[in-house]
Design goal:
Blueprint lengths: L1 E5 L3 H13 L3 E5 L2 H10 L6 E5 L7 H10 L6 E5 L4 H10 L3 E4 L4 H12 L5 E2 L2 E4 L2 E4 L4 E4 L2 E3 L3 H12 L7 H8 L8 H15 L8 E4 L3 E4 L2
Parallel strand pairs: 1-2, 1-3, 3-4, 4-5
Antiparallel strand pairs: 6-7, 7-8, 8-9, 9-10, 11-12
Bound molecules: calcium ion.
Length: 224
C-alpha cells in the first residue's frame, strides 16, 4: 500500500514515514500543499491513501482536498488537524476528506484509521482478505494457507496485500512497483520477478493449487 504524507514539519513527516515503512507501507512525503497536490495529481492511481496536514504553506489541506475532489480524484484522505476545533473538522470533511485525526495522535490510532479507510467492503470479510484458502490479515500481519501460518518478509507481505486487495485483476510490474515501493527506491521490473519467485515459493509451492498466476506480457494475477 502506498501512502502520500503531506506535512510541512519535516520532523513529523519523517517520523510518520519511518513508522509506516516499519509497518510495510511505501511512503512518499511532500512538505507543502502545492507539492502534495502535484504529487497526488501526477499519479492519481499510485496512492492508496493520503495523510494530509491542514496548516500547510502554499495551499492548505482544505484546498488540496477540495481541488483533488473537483478533479475527480477519489483517493481516501485522512486529514491531520492540529486543533480539535469542530469547525475545522466540519470544513475538512466538507472539503472532501474521508476522516480526520487531531494532533498529537497515537501511532496505533493512525494505523487503525488508515486500515479502516483502506478497507474495501467487496474485497474483505471483516478485516481479513481471502483468496481460495489463502488469508491475509492487515492488522496482525498474519498470512495463512490451508490453516498453516506462512512467514513473509515485510516486502513480500506488502506485495501480497496489494495482490489480495486487487484479487482477480491483472497487475503490471510497474503498478506493483508504484504501490509497494516509494519513489526514491530504485526498483526494476526484474526485481519484482525475483520477489514474485520468493512469494510463490512460500504461498504456492507447498500446495497443490497455484493461486499466483503470471500473465505473460502483462503481469500477475492472484485468483483461486
Ligand atoms: Ca503544518
Amino acid at each position: 500500500m502506498k501512502v502520500l504524507v503531506v506535512e510541512d514539519e519535516y520532523r513529523i513527516a519523517q517520523a510518520i514515514k519511518e513508522g509506516l515503512e516499519d509497518e510495510g507501507y511505501a511512503v512518499d512525503a511532500e512538505h507543502n500543499g502545492q507539492d502534495g497536490y502535484n504529487a497526488a495529481s501526477a499519479a492519481p492511481d499510485d496512492y492508496d491513501i493520503i495523510l494530509l496536514d491542514v496548516m500547510l504553506p502554499q495551499m492548505n489541506g482544505f484546498e488540496v482536498a477540495k481541488q483533488l475532489r473537483v478533479d475527480g480524484n477519489h483517493v481516501p484522505i485522512l486529514m491531520l488537524t492540529a486543533k480539535d476545533a469542530e469547525a475545522d473538522i466540519v470544513h475538512g470533511l466538507d472539503a472532501g476528506a474521508d476522516d480526520y485525526l487531531a494532533k498529537p495522535f497515537s501511532f496505533e490510532v493512525l494505523l487503525a484509521r488508515m486500515r479502516a479507510l483502506l478497507r474495501r467492503p467487496q474485497a474483505t470479510t471483516g478485516e481479513v482478505f481471502e483468496v481460495g484458502d489463502l488469508t491475509l490479515n492487515p492488522a496482525t500481519k498474519q498470512v495463512t494457507r490451508s490453516g498453516s501460518e506462512i512467514q513473509l518478509t515485510a516486502k513480500e507481505f506488502a506485495i501480497l496485500e496489494y495482490l489480495m486487495r486487487n484479487a482477480g485483476q491483472v497487475l503490471s510490474k510497474e503498478s506493483i512497483i508504484t504501490h509497494v515501493w516509494d519513489f526514491d527506491a530504485d526498483v526494476l521490473p526484474n526485481n519484482v520477478e525475483v520477489f514474485m519467485t520468493f512469494l510463490r515459493s512460500k504461498i504456492d509451492k507447498p500446495f497443490a493449487v497455484p493461486l499466483l498466476h503470471t500473465v505473460r506480457g502483462f503481469g500477475y494475477k492472484l485468483s483461486a
